[in-house]
Structure formats: C-alpha cells, structure tokens
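Re: the multi-chain job from yesterday

Posting the exact lines I submitted so nobody has to dig through the queue logs.
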Amino acid sequence: MGKCKVGIIGSGNIGTDLMYKIERCEYLEMSVMVGIDPESEGLCRARSRGYHTIDSGIDGLLEAPELVDIVFDATTAKAHKLHSEKLTALGKKVIDLTPAAIGPFTVPPVNLTQHLDKGNVNMVTCGGQATIPIVHAINRVVQVEYAEIVATVASKSAGPGTRANIDEFTRTTAKAIEEVGGAKIGKAIIILNPAEPPIIMRDTVHALVKEVGREQEIIESVEKMAAEVQTYVPGYRLRSKPIFDGKKISVFIEVEGAGDFFPPYSGNLDIMTAAAAKVGNEMAKQLIAEAIK
Amino acid sequence: MENKRSFEILDVTLRDGSHAMKHAFTEEQVRETARGLDQAGVSYFEVSHGDGLGGSSLQYGFSQVDELELIEAAADECKNAKVSVLLIPGIGIKEDLQNAVKAGAKMVRVATHVTEADVAAQHIALGRELGLKTVGFLMMAHMAPVEKLVEQAKLFESYGAEIVYVTDSAGYLLPHEVKERVSALRSELSCEIGFHGHNNLSMAMANTVAAIEAGATYIDGSLRCLGAGSGNTQTEVMVAVLERMGFHTGIDLFKIMDVANKVVARYMQRPQEITGSSLIMGYSGVYSSFLLHTQAAAQKFGVDERDILVELGRMKAVGGQEDLIYDVAARFAEQKKTLV
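And the result, structure tokens for all chains:
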C-alpha cells in the first residue's frame, strides 16, 4: 500500500477545507466525504472532485468500511463519541477535530509522533494549535510557571458549534497548554471581533517563567518554532520580537490561512485543518512502514 | 406625578471600579462598601474582577484577592441588597458562575460584544436554572446600528434574559443616541431594559436621564465614578438627580453620599476626572478599561497614548483586546525609530 485512504465525517466548513489539505499530503489519499445533507457544499464539492460521498452519516460509512483507513471527524463533540467508538472497534484510526478530546492532544511541532499508535488523537482547538508551540518553545528554555493565551478571531470565522460551546474552547485549550505546552498552569481567553473587513486571526501568548534572563535563547527558540509551524501553515507569523517584562514574556502571533476553502483571514480554521492533515500524514507514513515490515 | 415609575439603580463600584483599582480591592474595602450600599437602600450591586468572573489574568491584571472571597464577603454584609456578578463568555466559564453562586451571588449579567450575543445562550440558561436574576449585557453598543442591537437583544431575550442592557462601554454615545437605542428595545422587546454608561465625554448623567425617559428600568452607576475610563454615572449624584425629577429611588441620599465620600474616596487611587486619554476614548469609541493599560504601554514604548487610542478606535478593537494595545504601541515605537 502506497497511501492510506481517508474519510472525512462532517461536510461543513472544516471538513471541506480539510479535503483540499488531504489532497496535498504525500501519504494520504482522499477517499470519502461523509455528511448528512446531500446538498451540503462539502458533499457537492467532494462529488465533483470524483470522491465517494455518503449522505447517511456514520451508519452509511459503517456499511462501507473498506473505503477508509484513517477517519477525520469534523462534526461535534457529542457526535464524535459515538463515531469514535464505532470506528476504533473496526480498527480504524480516528483524528478528532471536535472539542470532545477523548484521545490525547496532539500539536504537531511539539508531539507529532507521540500518540500515533493510539486509536484516537485530538487536535485541541484552533487557539491551542496557534499558541501551544510557543508555550513549549519558551518552556524548553526555562520552566513556564503560568501561560495564558488570548485568541482573537473574526466573528465570521467562528461557526455555530464554537459559539454554542465557547466554554469548551477555553477549557480544552487551557488543559492542553499544561499537558502539551508544559506550563504548570494554563489559561485561555477567546475574543470575537466583528470588524469589516474581517481581521486576520491574532494570538497572544503571555507566560510567566521561573527565572529572568536567557532572553536571547528564548527568542531563538520561539523563532525556530515559528519557522517549524510555517512548514505546514505558511501564513503563521510572529508580529514582533517577544516582549520581556521581568518574568513575563509576551509573544504576538498572526495566522493567515492558505485560502483553500476558507478566506485567508480565517487562520484559526486553517491551522486546525493543516495540523490535522499533518498528523494524518504522519500516521499514514507509520502505518505504511509497519505494513511493509 | 407620572414620574413615579419604579426602577432599580445597580451600583458597579466593586466591579467596574476594579479596573480603576487595578484589580487590587481588599476584603476590607469590599466589606465597607457593601455594608454602606446595603444600608443606603441599594437593591443590587456588582462584585467581580473588572473583566468579569475568571478575568484575573496577565491580559487584564491579576486580582489581588480572589474574587470569590470578595463576593462572599460582600454577600455576608448584605441584609437586603443582592450581589450581582459579571460573566463574559470567552473569559469566564459556567463553573465560575456556579462557584459565584455558592459564594452568594443572586444576579448574573452575561456580557458579549454587541454583535455576538449567541455565545451567551448556555450561560443565560445556567443563570435561570440556578434561580438568578439573569441579565444580557450588550457591550460597545455604539458599534452596531440600532437594528442590529435590537436583533441581538432579542436573542438574549429568547435565551431567557429578564433584562437586556444597552452598554456604552466606550462612553461614546450622546443622549439622543441612547434614547434611540433604549426606545427601540423598549418597543421591540417585552423584557426590561437597562443602561450602563461611561463618563468619558461627560455624558453619563445626561445619557442616564435619556435612558430613563426612554423607558429603561435598570440603571448602573458607580460611587465617585469609580469605574473604567472616567468611570460611570456617579451613583450618589444620580440619586439626587432622580429625586429632583420626582422619582422615588428608595435610596437614602445622605447614606449613599457617605459611602461615596467616606469609604470609596479613601481608597481611590486617583480622581476619576476626564483626562486627555479618557476623552479620546469617548471620542474614538474605545473600550474604557483600556485606559490604564494604554498609559502603561505608552510609557514603556515612549509613544503618545492618544495615538495608540485613536489607532485602536480605527482598528475597531473590541472589549478584551488589551493585548492589541501593546502590539500597537510596539509598532509605533518601531516606526518612530525608523523615522529618527
């Protein structure tokens, strides 16, 4: 087998954008888009690009399990629990883009390969994908006692799911700042800004470190990390050099999307799909290597 | 005597004033203020971090004393008054509200930017479920046209809010604009309407009168104007003005003056006068709690705070975006360097 077959459940914005990212992955082959509305834009686009489409949700996919090796879930936290149980029982790998967080958190430049053997991995949140690499970059130089992130996104790129469950964002992100970023205590804040034209996603990381000093090393570590994120999100940028104020370090980030399905200002959605595709690709690479063995 | 309609004055000194105090209220200050408000006859007053429950952070400033302890202390002082808390979804979460209720809160005001009410549905529902007086608080009300404000207020009402506020967070609105907004909500909604003002253009009292005349039944104020920017409608003055208008406020004028001048005046860190910066906030429509953060950033980066504020207004910054202040200040400092 040269590539792993991919299914995407959820033919909304995230699922549709993800499809384009999958097409560019070396070890992944887009196979099937699963939705519940045959007229949804995602299913129409998948059909027109020659992929299988299923409009009867998870049940439809379970009737044709041979279509997939790896399944990305871009539905809701509630639906994901059920999807995950059924798919992992069949030995399928699941990458979770919902806030369900059943499986371990994965943030590519920090722990890309750590959980690939698990049946289910979770992609945290958009704000988490944008900021946790930076928390980790600081923490690998000097212990981060407390890290707080502020994600500001254009109102237009916060969908109904995010809006109805905004607490999930803050809770899940804060937890992952600790578990993946390495901060002893994590906190997350999200702000929606309705300005027109829509603003590009901005993220700020404020960290309190154990001791002052080693500024040059921290700057280098943060810049190196930003370059690493840029390999899969080219529009990821530091807006300035980190600002030091005693034990407090602030890093300002801007995330411009690739403009696949989302407009470029929706860097928040783009970084989620880009990170998920990266994890899927790495997972496939490993599955293929094991199959050859 | 048609002026005798009943309404509530809600004092926000211990919440909006948290901004002016750099979130450093002590338990003693809160107890004394709460006791004074209760004895003066105020029915509701608010206690929380300035940015609401969970606001204690590097972004907005850490609370010197945990807000839950302050809420508990305030509730402990109340014989009749009820403690309100502010919750801004995206900053605070439902657990914060549950904890505040355990500490004694009886009212919650769930605040969103004027166009984003739909992030608050679950918090409003929780407020009702916990038996709280539940309020929707539409911040930066000047940033949306009246039709949009009405649409968002209706969302809050549909989630179960018993009162919806027009919140002039930037102190930008003029009396005729307040009247237009409150009247529109009054005619389109069946729940009660509130008004929260800031005094950056010296319009807080005039706006309050306009709001009451247009049918608002909940009005916010702070003692000695202790709130973000140049503060809010001055509670003790408002009591005097409303009595002169023929209303029964139910608040004892001398007693409320005493809390203002014998308690609050003692711990205020600076007079709440309209300075160059707060004036520009009102003029450019910038969120009032940016004031002290802007002054700090201007000092750190050696730039004019007014330039930062005008730029934030131009960028249409919304409440909570305090990180943008440092971003803008750093950019201006960089530009200054290249010019030299």
